[in-house]
## 1
Amino acid sequence: MNPPPRPTMLLIAAAASSFLLSMIQSIPVPVLPQIAQQLGVDATTAGWVTTATLLAASACTPLLGRLGHVYGIKPVFIAALVITLIGSVITATVHDIGWLIAGRILQGASMGLFPLSISLLRHELPADRLTGSMAVVASTLGVGGGVALVAAGLLAQGDGDYRRAFGVSVLVSLIALALACTLPRRAGGGGRVDWLGAAVLSAGLISLLLPISQGHSWGWTSPRVLGLFAVAAAILAGFIILERRSAAPLVSVELLRHRPVLITNLAAMAVGFAMFAGQLATSYLVQIPRETAGFGFSASVLETSIVFLLPGAAVSIVAGPLAGRLVNRIGPRLVLVAACVTAALSSLSLALAHDGKAEVIIAFVLLSCGIAMAYAAMPALLISHVDPHDTSIANSINSIMRTIGGTIGSALVITILAVPTQAAFRISYVMSAIVYAVGAALVLIFIRSASRTSRTADELVTSRT
């Protein structure tokens, strides 16, 4: 007989893991120049420090979700954290680009922690605490990224060793692993793992994300980029055919086709696209030397993190839980629409007014609020339309769609800002605003009401047994 789960400890463990994965995703960004300089490699090679984690995450996230359902969440959760810890130790100790990239590949396992956390909360928490807890966990995705930028800026400022920044991930990995050991152990749902489907999906996603992330350096019309896009299309089409014929598919095609799930995934892609585009554009904007360009704030990397980006991350700590209360009051659909509209207006404000520090900081804080609200609403919207046993894989696919959107958004902004004129920044922000608005419209028009309502406390108890 398992002891009853402690809701507060569950929430802390899930929030710590989400904080860790967002920190791992963001922490290399400020130190990429030091990595290139200290390891004697060019900027393109150093860029693989971020690309490697992205590709590994796309490959392992859906597989971890399925493994969690089959074998139980706790052992898979701990295994993902152990792999992440090993990768973190490597990145914090080696001084070789090959080993550094290898460590970052192992850290990609952390990206599966968020969908596993949401599944854990759904199966273990009473219904009256579920929405608010999911909102808190989701909001830490934004907080971890902001803290990572500040920590990396402080630890590697000047000529500091880039490995100091990666050392932070070792500490947080250890804390998250210790907390994960307190999680309740429940048997999985059984069944088998579709290893072939996982391999095919991984190959398709890597073939898609690789040219998107490298297109600005390889050339968008180069044979390598176009060829990989063609390969990705063929592999992903083959994956759908394979899953239709599988008795135990990795991802149910019917689940993906279910309209609320499909629209939520498209909204996640829009949020990821516009979020990364807006954050990247703002980081570039504030560092532009005003003396030569006539705009920008000549901010250092450290000033960019603390003065311009950290306030938005701090506000996300409050915005996420408040969004959870709104979800309980008006439902996740309207909260997600409001989040996208808020972010769209903030992006438009940055496009039209970015001459003063205050207006940029305020607009970015509102943008961060919109993103935190969207993160809080999407898991709640998904679980109101999927059965408990599909929670982890549904959120895994949603995370991948957000990653794909973010990769596209980042690549486009890098391409647009290759010549960093004021018009280029305006185009980037207007593009973000339009994509947010499209996400809001999709949810508002095509999701009417929950076809499968969220479980009551009694129904959740029944589903666990």
## 2
Amino acid sequence: MSDESGSFDYDVIVIGSGPGGYVCAIRAAQLGLKTACVESRETLGGTCLNVGCIPSKALLQASEKFEEANHALSNFGVEVGRVKLNLPTMLSHKDKVVEANVKGVEFLFKKNKIDWLKGHGSLQGGGRVEVKGQKAAKTYSAKQIVIASGSTHVDLPGLTVDEKQIVSSTGALDLPKVPKHLVVVGGGYIGLEMGSVWLRLGAKVTVVEFLDRIVPTMDGEIGKQFQRILGKQGMAFKLGTKVTGAKTGKQGVSLTVEPAKGGDAEEIKADVVLVAIGRKPFTEGLGLEAAGVETDERGRIVTDSHFKTSAEGVYAIGDAIVGPMLAHKAEEEGVAVAESLAGLPGHVNYETVPGIVYTWPEVASVGPTEEELKAKDVDYRVGKFPFTANGRARAAGSTDGFVKIIADRRSDRILAAHIIGPEAGTLIHEVVVAMEFGGSAEDLARSFHGHPTLNEAVKEAALAVDGRPIHI
């Protein structure tokens, strides 16, 4: 605690050790600030590393390999015989990946001399944070406090999550056996990713979505193609449908659904139901109100452009504030706030935040959708190129999808890019870099792209903006 001379235990205390929090703590320590990070879990890394981004990608990768061995390798002349699923080993692989990542963060804390304050942190006002551990509570003081508390899943009325029959994304990572029928409530990133995992492993998967399309925040053309491809893989969809109730029993779950716009109800039987309708800021028990930290109508912490809250010396980043709930967004905000606390000009360019769905094929986007540009009367041009015309995609047997680049008609500055296809999450980043430098479609079109690579599809889409693609 601070003494009468006004000294503090730390320059910065970060509450939460997810991608936003741990990155913020590391950057602050790099800049010479005495830093501590409060985390109540037994391991560092927050939701993302423990029960979110990292374990889900481990299962996606593993299930892709199972699917490939089952259905695709023979196309390349690789005969593997009968393929058998060993689910315990697959889940163990996931756990080992998580363990390596969280231990990596712990190593980085030690390397950068960051103190891990183990327990639940809450604001006490006046630069003080109380940390309640398993045995006792202790109060620490800091010149500046950064809230990086992350988010949690949104519950749906009538569906009580028990993490056995009705699960959140956390429970969907540890199902003890492949369900015969998995119903996913929500057609967004998380639901489609986890649905894809269990679909590949043998489950029947039905996605129930309230709106009339999946991935509603993404470009409409991409969404239609995405649904078509997932449908070919065997995923079923009930769009424009709402869930009104659920009953659990020994035989599974009986869901009651009806058209979102009104109509007759029907029953869907499932072994497991995954509720993936979104996430909300996790601010429970942080003492926000008592400390004078303002929140909005959705429970998000209100900040200014420099991440300052309404309480003196308190900042907030990541899923706890407005903006897309993405790990990389939180990371950049963590770096920006740490640098600003050290007297540097911290900044985040929200125009270049990419969004990625890690299904197969992947879906990635940066910038506004075509629908959003039309609504704003922006004069633009579009260039598209299909992976069916890309040599590397043909060689890999992954020709579904296309690259779509949107540029301003007058200046040719790249406004957005939307990709569905192999390695879309990797390909999108050359467009992100181009946009960060204010690049044009012509800049991309004139840049060398090695042959044969998937990236050539990005170059061709850039050429197509000017109506001169070479290979189609």
## 3
Amino acid sequence: MSDELRKQAHELDVTVWVGKKGIDAVVDELDDQLNNEELVKAKFLRSARGTDDTEELAAALAERVDAEVIDTRGHTAVFH
């Protein structure tokens, strides 16, 4: 994980929100955004998390879109 990518990620706005419908509902949107942008920031709302933690959900979502999780902080993850 590059420090340069982490620096870029810090300035990003959240463009994907994972809600009560879970990661299935945002797979296509995240994939589309990653095709157009190098980095995408996603926020996992309480209704999406349930008993799972953000790292687990981010890893599962990254696998579905063939991406890499650059960073997770709180309930937010950055994908590359």
